[in-house]
Specification:
Layout lengths: L2 E6 L4 E5 L2 E5 L3 H4 L6 E14 L2 E12 L5 E11 L4 E11 L7 E13 L2 E10 L10 E9 L2
Antiparallel strand pairs: 1-2, 2-4, 3-4, 4-5, 5-6, 6-7, 7-8, 8-9, 9-10
Length: about 150
C-alpha cells in the first residue's frame, strides 16, 4: 500500500512511501539461489512531478534482509500520456550498493492502459544492462492490475 504524504498541486510535486515486509520461507527457489530466504524489510520513497507534457518519477530506498545483503534501491522513470486511456513509460532501475559492477541495473519500457475508472493494466518488459559478477544478462516482464480508490 502506498502512502502519499505530500501532494502540492501548485508545483506538481508529490512524495510517497510504500514500505513492504516479506516473509520468505525456505523453498526450492532459495536453494537454487533465485531468492533470499528470511524476512526482508523494504523502505522506498518516491518523488513524482511533471516536466511539460512528461511525467517523471524518482525512487530511492533501502532493503534490509535477514539472510541476504542489504541493498539500496534507486530509479528514474519518465512517461507521457498518449490519451485518456494510454500512457507510455521508460525506466532505469538499480539495486545494490551504488557501484555499477555490483548493482543490477535494469531498463524497462512499459504501458499503462486504463480499463475502467478504478482499474489500470500495467505491462512492462526490460532487461539488465550490466553483468553483475559475470552473470548473464537477464530479461524480465511485469503484468499487473492497479486498483485506485
Amino acid at each position: 500500500m502506498k502512502w502519499r504524504f505530500f501532494d502540492d498541486a501548485a508545483s506538481g510535486l508529490a512524495i510517497s512511501a510504500y514500505p513492504q515486509l516479506a516473509f520468505n520461507n525456505p523453498t526450492s527457489s532459495e536453494q537454487r539461489g533465485l531468492v533470499d530466504g528470511g524476512t526482508t524489510l523494504v523502505l522506498p520513497f518516491e518523488f513524482q512531478g511533471t516536466l511539460g507534457s512528461l511525467e517523471w518519477n524518482a525512487e530511492i530506498g533501502r532493503s534490509f534482509s535477514e539472510r541476504g545483503e542489504d541493498e539500496w534501491l534507486y530509479g528514474f522513470a519518465i512517461g507521457r500520456k498518449i490519451n485518456d486511456q494510454l500512457e507510455l513509460a521508460a525506466e532505469l532501475h538499480g539495486a545494490g550498493r551504488f557501484a555499477y559492477e555490483d548493482d543490477e541495473v535494469v531498463v524497462n519500457f512499459g504501458v499503462r492502459l486504463k480499463l475502467a475508472e478504478h482499474q489500470t493494466l500495467l505491462v512492462s518488459v526490460g532487461r539488465s544492462v550490466n553483468k553483475v559478477h559475470g552473470e548473464e544478462l537477464t530479461y524480465l516482464g511485469y503484468l499487473g492490475l492497479q486498483l485506485t480508490y
